[in-house]
Design a protein that fits this description.
By secondary structure, the chain is mainly beta. The chain has one domain: Electron Transport, Fmn-binding Protein, Chain A (Pnp Oxidase, Chain A, Roll), CATH 2.30.110. 13% of the residues lie in helices and 46% in strands. Strands 1, 2, 3, 4, 5, 6, 7, 8 and 9 form a 9-stranded antiparallel beta sheet that branches. The longest helix is centred in the middle third of the chain and has 9 residues. The radius of gyration is 15 Å and the shape is globular.
Length: 130
Amino acid sequence: MSIKVETGSIAETMEGFVFAYLLTLGTAPRPHVVAVGVSAAGGSLRVSEVGRSSRRNIEGNDAVTLLWPPREDGGYSLIVDGSASLQGDEVVVVPERAVLHRPAPDAPAPEDGSCASDCVELPVTGPAGS
């Protein structure tokens, strides 16, 4: 199950988290993951102080994910998929999909193959900073 997050509520939702992970894709068959601080402004999410590998990966593939881990056991993670660009020292992410996600407590996997997790999808329909 997924809980959608409206783009306008991403900024409000991310206030409950301490930090995020930025996941980028390079030429290796695995994601590159770094811990980052994120701010919301003008319909986008901004990440500062990323390293060479993250910058190089974004130059080659703009698809990124921001993942805020839960603050407590059993809590939700916030996951935002988007397109990234480099603007000076910042990475600017335009959200395309956002979801609050956590494993469902003691739930068996459904036989129909649907999600056995407790998720809340966040529709991306307005500015991230509103």
